[in-house]
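Below is a filled-in request sheet from our internal design queue. Each sheet records the structural input a requester submitted and the sequence that came back. We keep these sheets so that new team members can see what a complete request looks like end to end.

REQUESTER: design group, bay 2
PRIORITY: normal
MODE: inverse folding
CHAIN LENGTH: 151
BACKBONE (tokenized):
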């Protein structure tokens, strides 16, 4: 009887994929409504800041969240970022001034940088799959060089 084939991706990997999909879906579904919301507040000239503040602060937060993940642990940082993003989503209806709205976008963007940074999918891939992936990628080393494969 043949041994069952091991799956290259663990259940944890698929849960992380689902978690990331729902996380990104949560603020991307909100995005099409934000320009109209800002226009109703009288901030027509600030529509460009909706994406700019969010993206800029998400990019700025990545090194900090990475350092925090190395210090505190990846799971607490991921949970913190997800929780702050979740809470920020509920504050949009109460952001009644343009300044308050753009400040909320700033905080929302900063917390959004935490989840993707704190999770590395390579940890959730089966070792055998990592070995085969590493062996199948072309190497820039000379053909006589020996590759070191992660365990």
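RETURNED SEQUENCE:
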């Amino acid at each position: 009887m043949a041994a069952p084939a091991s799956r290259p991706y663990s259940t944890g990997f698929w849960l992380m994929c689902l978690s990331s999909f729902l996380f990104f879906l949560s603020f991307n579904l909100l995005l099409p409504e934000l320009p109209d919301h800002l226009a109703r507040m009288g901030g027509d000239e600030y529509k460009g800041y909706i994406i700019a503040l969010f993206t800029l602060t998400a990019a700025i937060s990545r090194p900090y969240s990475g350092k925090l993940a190395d210090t505190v642990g990846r799971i607490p940082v991921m949970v913190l970022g997800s929780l702050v993003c979740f809470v920020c989503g509920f504050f949009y209806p109460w952001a009644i001034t343009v300044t308050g709205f753009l400040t909320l976008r700033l905080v929302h963007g900063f917390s959004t940088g935490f989840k993707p940074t704190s999770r590395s999918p390579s940890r959730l891939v089966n070792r055998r799959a990592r070995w085969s992936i590493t062996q199948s990628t072309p190497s820039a080393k000379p053909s006589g060089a020996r590759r070191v494969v992660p365990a």
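SHEET NOTES:
- Residues 130-137, 140-145 have pLDDT under 50 and may be disordered.
- Residues 48-71 form the longest helix (24 residues).
FILED BY: M.R.
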